[in-house]
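Hi R.,

As promised on Friday, here is the backbone we talked about, encoded as structure tokens. Could you run it through your design pipeline when you get a chance and send me back a sequence?
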């Protein structure tokens, strides 16, 4: 069945009378690969009769196969949304119907409908992506990756090569005037060069089980807030090679989308929280390439969608969007020198808040790695970041282990090309000196900031804390207030103002 022959099925699905119950209107959402029909409290997804280099829905048998695959795979993350597959048939009197024993025409996937306002893309546009929601999203993605099936036959160098080929072929074939052929060739060459440079890392991660049957299309439009929980849906079902990827390449789509939309701090939050709870820091060097490939994917998919858009104004806007994704892909591959920043201060000075803001601005794709002593201490004890530890977890010997871990992880991240922000009290001169020495040893610029504010400000902030990785309470603060800090060679920053003002002050010092 061709796209032209599918028109009768599209007309049937577009007609409110085709559905049981009181459906007064059917909304449609069209993409290059499918048409979605929103009818009452249900969603009906029809796969277009199309064939691309990476996707084949050209026969009815294939569309049925992939409808069933989509149902099965998406039930891993959204079992309440994905309901069933249905046949569309022609009855003996010539009418179209769902099911029955008439002539089989096509298949649709049936989902439970949810408000479009629940989409994370909408939440991003309305400023509703809170830090807590971003952390919960990162936790959800990390848990999904942890449980996903290992697929060592895919990924690695071959997987990246496949993505480069698909992106290059489809963008060239579309031939958008907004992207010159020479530019397209330059992006392909840069990605291929990065793939060769990272070949050993890509293959090592594949051999270690880091390639899994992931989501494959994890942008904000495929995540929804359902019953208060971040819910992943609409994963790739049509190409096992594109869905079976390095888990960091899967994460990269989400991070790239946040960056594209201008949500740098949200991207930094997800990036760092994911690495805090998932053992994937060894793959940091591949993140710029992974992010660039994802932006390139969006560029070619957007161009493909523009080609089938009937409205000239919308088609022109789609092509402009593709150009922005293409430019982002090029920008993500730019060489950026890493640097080391340490944020010290007593409890309540807002170290973690300022660390996040600086992480988002220290743009070594997608953000600087934040290494927080409170989180590393919890990891040493096998505890979740917000889980409270007993008092004996704060002995001098344990604190030495924490600072050694901070130093080791920072060195590894810097070696991968990623900037680092260390978030630790660093009240002892020796603790501050070891971070400065680390910067010198790694050959990167080092800046240390000491945050300070009146005691009453710190007491008020600690009293207002909820669900934080720090276990410090007012008793701990009172003890800290009596510390002899020794000579302070880090830049002192008054943190009694707003976080934005404090971050601006620190950033100004960094960029002077």
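Update: got your reply. Pasting your designed sequence below so it's all in one thread:
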């Amino acid at each position: 069945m061709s796209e032209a022959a599918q028109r009768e099925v599209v007309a049937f699905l577009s007609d409110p009378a085709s559905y049981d119950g009181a459906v007064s209107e059917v909304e449609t959402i069209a993409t290059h690969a499918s048409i979605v029909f929103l009818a009452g409290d249900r969603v009906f997804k029809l796969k277009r009769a199309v064939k691309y280099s990476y996707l084949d829905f050209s026969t009815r048998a294939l569309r049925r196969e992939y409808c069933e695959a989509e149902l099965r795979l998406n039930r891993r993350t959204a079992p309440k949304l994905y309901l069933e597959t249905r046949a569309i048939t022609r009855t003996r009197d010539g009418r179209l119907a769902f099911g029955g024993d008439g002539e089989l025409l096509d298949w649709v996937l049936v989902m439970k409908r949810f408000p479009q306002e629940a989409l994370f893309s909408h939440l991003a546009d309305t400023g509703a992506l809170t830090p807590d929601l971003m952390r919960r999203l990162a936790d959800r993605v990390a848990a999904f990756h942890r449980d996903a099936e290992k697929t060592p036959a895919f990924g690695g160098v071959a997987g990246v090569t496949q993505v480069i080929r698909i992106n290059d072929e489809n963008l060239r074939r579309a031939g958008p005037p907004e992207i010159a052929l020479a530019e397209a060739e330059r992006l392909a060459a840069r990605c291929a060069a990065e793939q060769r440079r990272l070949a050993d890392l890509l293959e090592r991660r594949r051999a270690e089980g880091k390639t899994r049957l992931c989501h494959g299309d994890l942008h904000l439009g495929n995540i929804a807030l359902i019953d208060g929980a971040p819910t992943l849906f609409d994963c790739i079902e049509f190409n096992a090679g594109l869905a079976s990827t390095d888990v960091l390449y899967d994460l990269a789509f989400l991070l790239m989308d946040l960056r594209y939309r201008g949500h740098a701090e949200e991207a930094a939050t997800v990036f760092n929280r994911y690495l805090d709870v998932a053992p994937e820091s060894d793959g940091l060097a591949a993140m710029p390439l992974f992010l660039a490939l994802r932006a390139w994917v969006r560029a070619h998919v957007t161009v493909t969608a523009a080609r089938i858009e009937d409205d000239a104004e919308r088609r022109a806007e789609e092509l402009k969007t593709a150009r922005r994704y293409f430019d982002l892909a090029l920008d993500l591959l730019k060489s950026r020198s890493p640097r080391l920043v340490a944020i010290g201060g007593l409890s309540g000075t807002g170290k973690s808040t300022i660390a996040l803001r600086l992480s988002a601005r220290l743009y070594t794709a997608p953000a600087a790695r934040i290494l927080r002593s409170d989180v590393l201490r919890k990891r040493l004890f096998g505890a979740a970041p917000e889980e409270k530890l007993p008092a004996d977890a704060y002995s001098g010997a344990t604190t030495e282990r924490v600072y050694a871990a901070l130093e080791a992880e920072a060195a590894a991240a810097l070696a991968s090309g990623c900037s680092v922000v260390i978030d630790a009290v660093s009240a002892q001169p020796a603790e501050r000196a070891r971070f400065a020495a680390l910067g010198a040893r790694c050959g990167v610029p080092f800046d240390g900031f000491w945050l300070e504010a009146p005691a009453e400000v710190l007491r008020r902030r600690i009293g207002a804390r909820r669900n934080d990785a720090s276990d410090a309470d007012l008793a701990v603060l009172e003890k800290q207030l009596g510390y002899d800090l020794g000579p302070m060679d880090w830049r002192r920053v008054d943190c009694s103002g707003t976080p934005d003002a404090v971050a601006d002050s620190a950033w100004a010092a960094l960029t002077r």
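One thing I noticed while checking it: The mean pLDDT is 93.

Thanks again,
M.
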